[in-house]
């Protein structure tokens, strides 16, 4: 398992905003998860009209081949296949009148579907 620290360099796999980390940690604690071991899994899966979509879930611990990125006390688990698609991305949490939830800003995306739920690199 590889691990990146908060003090990492500009080649970070995933950045996490303080808002996203705070919301994810609060959700994990409400689920009774150990935030020191568990984390948010960010992955890419086939699907959507543009071909790929993001997935997120909480896991109790990382898989052996995951990269574990720690940002603002949140552990983010990324599998090797997804790492190729999301390197350099920023995970944010937005709340507003029309939408609330996690959002991935991915510099590798060349096109997105009209609703923004899927992408192509």
From TrEMBL:
<dbReference type="GO" id="GO:0016226">
    <property type="term" value="P:iron-sulfur cluster assembly"/>
</dbReference>
<dbReference type="Pfam" id="PF01521">
    <property type="entry name" value="Fe-S_biosyn"/>
</dbReference>
<dbReference type="InterPro" id="IPR017870">
    <property type="entry name" value="FeS_cluster_insertion_CS"/>
</dbReference>
<feature type="domain" description="Core">
    <location>
        <begin position="14"/>
        <end position="117"/>
    </location>
</feature>
<dbReference type="InterPro" id="IPR035903">
    <property type="entry name" value="HesB-like_dom_sf"/>
</dbReference>
<dbReference type="GO" id="GO:0005506">
    <property type="term" value="F:iron ion binding"/>
</dbReference>
<dbReference type="InterPro" id="IPR000361">
    <property type="entry name" value="ATAP_core_dom"/>
</dbReference>
<dbReference type="GO" id="GO:0051537">
    <property type="term" value="F:2 iron, 2 sulfur cluster binding"/>
</dbReference>
<dbReference type="GO" id="GO:0051539">
    <property type="term" value="F:4 iron, 4 sulfur cluster binding"/>
</dbReference>
<dbReference type="InterPro" id="IPR016092">
    <property type="entry name" value="ATAP"/>
</dbReference>
<protein>
    <submittedName>
        <fullName>Iron-sulfur cluster assembly accessory protein</fullName>
    </submittedName>
</protein>
């Amino acid at each position: 398992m590889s691990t990146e620290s908060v003090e990492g360099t500009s080649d970070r796999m995933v950045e996490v905003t303080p808002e996203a980390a705070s919301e994810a940690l609060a959700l994990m604690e409400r689920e009774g998860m150990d935030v020191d071991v568990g984390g948010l899994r960010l992955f890419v899966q086939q699907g959507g009209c543009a071909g790929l979509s993001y997935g997120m879930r909480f896991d109790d611990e990382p898989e052996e081949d995951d990269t574990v990125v720690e940002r603002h006390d949140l552990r983010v688990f990324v599998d090797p296949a997804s790492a190729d698609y999301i390197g350099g991305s920023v995970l944010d949490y937005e709340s507003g009148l029309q939408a609330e939830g996690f959002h991935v800003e991915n510099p590798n995306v060349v096109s997105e579907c009209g609703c923004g739920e899927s992408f192509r690199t």
